[in-house]
Design a protein that fits this description.
The complex is a heterodimer of chains A (357) and B (310). Chain A is an alpha/beta fold and 357 residues long. In chain A, 34% of the residues lie in helices and 23% in strands. Chain A has twelve helices and twelve strands. In chain A, helix 4 packs across helix 5, helix 4 packs parallel to helix 7 and helix 7 packs parallel to helix 8. With 310 residues, chain B is an alpha/beta fold. Chain B has a single domain, classed as 3-Layer(aba) Sandwich (Rossmann fold), CATH 3.40.50. Helix content of chain B is 36%, strand content 24%. Chain B is built from twelve helices and twelve strands. In chain B, the strands form two sheets. Chain B has an eight-stranded mixed sheet with strand order 6-7-8-3-9-10-12-11, sandwiched between helices. In chain B, strands 2-1-4-5 form a four-stranded antiparallel sheet, covered by helices on one side. At the A-B interface, helix 8, helix 9, helix 10, helix 11 and helix 12 of A face helix 5, helix 6, helix 7, helix 9 and helix 10 of B.
Chain lengths: 357, 310
Amino acid sequence: MAREKIMEVRDLSISFKTTTGIVNAIRGVDMDLYRGETVAIVGESGSGKSVTAKAMMGILASNSIVNSGTVKFTYNDNGGESKTVDILKMSKNEIRRDINGKHIAMVFQDPMTSLDPTMTIGKQITESMIWHYKTPKAEAEAKALELLELVGITDPEKRMKNYPHQLSGGMRQRVVIAIAMACDPDLLICDEPTTALDVTIQARILELIKDIQVKKNISVIYITHDLGVVAKVADYVDVMYAGKLVEKGTVDEIFYEPRHPYTWGLLSAMPDLDTRDDRLYTIPGSPPTLKNEIKGDAFAPRNKYALNIDTRIDPPMFKMSDTHYAATWLLDDRAPTHDMPPEIKGRIERMLKEENK
Amino acid sequence: MTEEREPLLKVEHLKQYFKVSRKFTVKAVNDVSFEIYPGETYGLVGESGSGKTTIGRSIIRLYEPTAGKITFEGMDVSGKMDKETFRKLHCDMQMIFQDPMASLNPRKRVDEIIAQGIDINHMAGSEAERKQMVIDMLEEVGLDPDHATRYPHQFSGGQRQRIGIARALIMNPKLVIADECISALDVSIQAQVVNLMKDMQDKTHCAYLFIAHDLSMVKYISDRIGVLHLGHMVETGTRDEIFDNPIHPYTKSLLSAIPSPNPKVEKKRKYMTYNYYESGIDYDKGMEHLVEGTHTVLATDEEFQKWTNA
């Protein structure tokens, strides 16, 4: 089956004007997404994952400056015709009318702040259908019931009349997902959907999003720093650091053959259940501020494998396979041979063994 | 396990109720007992609302315990305390909070924050000694001594949590209650803070009560673990006893929910559901049953039979 590309981000670069100066939050990001697939964007806070997602949805903050780049989104118009638009060139009104909620929907981290406390659940779910498609109220309500059932809320008739504060955290997040699904979007963006939830509820919400994705054949972007979540849901992984992609590949390539030192650090910072080492492998220091111009590789000061060239020239993306790219000079032919840190090597060996069990 | 080891902290049948209104009382903690030995790390896990934070706060007496007995270093610290016991409790037991921004006074400089315990208890003989203690502490937690004159907002999340740790450890406590102290941090920073906590434990031999909901981190850091649900301690034991041989269905479902950073395993994993209200289990009827060693589980006789034979 041919893959249908629905999102194409090229050379995206975004800055923010703040009281202390200009912050270059995104510095040249390329990203692709195909229908029915899941991409996870991982990275520390401040690495630009959320800003990338917001740019895709056209909801950047008012102090943002788009320096360059295109965000091409392909969707099926009402008539069923395929239409491609550049989100960054659309006006706010156009985006509100044609894209947000209708073709791209977003699930935010905290379900309490993303729901309106003064509106009933039912009203919040039907709102977008009535607004975008002028669905008659009765029809919209019937669909809302269906959606509540789909996200696994028991007794949906009763819940329709409830207010957000009457529901538990897991329930609220289910409602948020139901709202996002109301207009059958082509793309669902989940910004840390389970960070505010307990592990037990987290597992259920992730399985729920996955089920819906298969049923409706939509694409999903996950923004997260939890690699357990990534391992569970993602087909492809994009690792971001300081406003740039440092490594991208399929989930297996990232977890079993990581090539960038930053990915090594991320992978081994989270202990798996068999980690018995005395110390966790850590990335020393903290991420750079993006206020100043960064010369060379932004990760070089924290990288013990850094080469001389890293401080001068920013590494390009080196290609390992058709899907796997990494931006580190270590992959250059002229680089000295290097080995992965033993912690991560041991981890990967354990993971591969676990699989064969 | 040596029998003669004296527990540092002994919690017996702790109950903590909150009266919401005349008719309604929240039973946040219900009959919880456990012990912490000197120099070990005890992990307390459970979902939100299970009472783990309440237990920590009751022990350090931020709340008045409703019933039960808490013994710390041989002193009873659950009832009315005389001045000396109170002072000792506040020196030897310290707390690290979840949100490093909210727990540091934004109007105080870092050195004032860290030295507050010293000042209150007159631990330093002179101004120079006090200053030296602060500088030593800052260096121990991996901060620059120049940072002493800065304010909390000038630091990153990981650095702020280091200040929180410095503030707790400068008193040379015997027990540190770490309440979700890494949950608000990024993954890579979490690892740094956990490493620091482990290093400090090696140096000072303090015990940790590590409260968290991230089970993989709890497994990594804890010697013994207690699993809480709805205010009841449903299972407790050493790390290996809990993780290799979970008995209680709630523990099993909790363990099955841990996301594993391994795509091939994770994609196949199915989560085991557990619903207390439909399972027919009544925690109030359960009694502590010894499985082996220090591993105990809350169950009625029948349930215990069923779970251990299955």
